[in-house]
Amino acid sequence: MSQVPECMVSEPEDDVSVAGAAPSTLLFAVATGVIILNLFAPQTLVGIIGPSLGFSESGAGLVAMASLLGYATGLFFLVPLADLMENRQLVLRMLISALVMAVAAAFAPTGWSLLIFLFLLGAACSAIQILVPIAAVMTPPEHRGRVIGNVMSGVMVGILVSRPLASMIADLWGWRSFYVVSAAALALLTAVLALRLPERRPLVSASYGALIGSLFQLLREEPVLRVRAFTAALMMASFSLFWTSVALLLAQPPFSLGQSGIALFALVGAGGAAATSPFGRMGDRGWTRTATLVSHLIVLGATALAAWVGGVRSGQPLILLILLGVSAVMLDVGITGDQTLGRRAVNLLKPEARGRINGLFVGIFFLGGALGSALAGTAWDFGGWVAVCSAAAGFGVIALVTGVATRT
Predict the structure, then answer these.
(1) Average per-residue pLDDT in the chain?
(2) Distance between CA 239 and CA 253 in Å, rounded?
(3) Sequence-distant (≥ 6) Cβ neighbours of residue 136 within 8 angstroms
(4) Which residues on neighbouring strands pair with residue 385, listed in sequence order?
(5) Quick check: helix, strand or coil at residue 312?
(6) Cα 258 from Cα 266, distance rounded (Å)
(7) Most buried residue among 171, 206, 212, 370 by CB atoms closer than 10 A?
(8) Could you report the per-residue pLDDT of 242-291, keeping only the tens digit for each?
(9) 8, 352 in Cβ contact below 8 A?
(10) Which 8-state DSSP code applies to residue 230?
(11) Residue 286 phi, psi (nearest 5)
(12) pLDDT digits (tens, 9 = 90+) for 162-196
């Protein structure tokens, strides 16, 4: 296997040409939040997209899976280009592609064409993982956890707000209108980043084939990357199982919520985004392992509470809804913690391979999300909400055992 030369880059990573005025952390956070809206919006829209395009309840999970699977593919095959091409132009080209695919999704004539457009849209949205390393290399290592946590706040807010936003837009104008709004937002973001994004010219000299081949080498050589990506994928599977199925639960008695009510419930989960910065600081203080185990325990507590709420056959709907909201916030906090700590850990690895390392980490992470979305319909058909929560808890248990058994 050909190896990518590593001697051509050294710390500090001054390959970012900031020209005296680098974009702020806030700009990175907003940009990543806007882009990632497209990946999770289908989770709350499956209940209306599926019937409108002829999907069954179990098949509707494919709608939520398509963009996540495309995103993972982009992370494996597009993000490594960040170690080969000038990053600013690469990001802008990917955002223009995402804009085109959002418009195509808005006018998709059939279910299968929509799946293709969502897959390609997800792949283009992997531009996020080119933006995050730019923020990382502009920060001293001792503050990198805090900055990555702040940027990840934008990602998590985008993930968590995508569901209520999509529900509210769909309730007003139909599900296709969400992708029209998304295309407009991507157009505005592309224009802003074209003016503000600094150049980042990688110094690695290698072919694209060698870069892709080096992904397997990085996985083999970096145990921190393997473990953190694996547990992150398990956490994301739990997350996707919960949020892909909760709309189906909320539409049934005793809740009987419409799209607007589901949107308000999904907004509650956005509180979990506040956990990114505290977990980043804990990593900076050397508490990574303990904080990771705590995050896994929080996820298990969340799934247990959610399963109990779903199994209650009598009681006040409002109280049950509040308890379900508590479980949603707990779940989001736990998953946010694991991902933030994992991202901090892998961004302290080889600087000359940061684009590929981020692509691997988040690509494996989102494969877990795609798996969770794909399993949601099957779990729901098999045993309803309790089966969904049981499957989510199972992923959490594996993550906890992995964290206890390893000391990377």
Answers:
(1) 82
(2) 23
(3) 144, 147, 148, 347, 354
(4) none
(5) coil
(6) 12
(7) 370
(8) 988 888 898 888 888 877 787 778 777 666 666 666 776 777 777 878 88
(9) yes
(10) H
(11) 90, 15
(12) 777 888 888 889 889 999 999 999 999 999 999 88
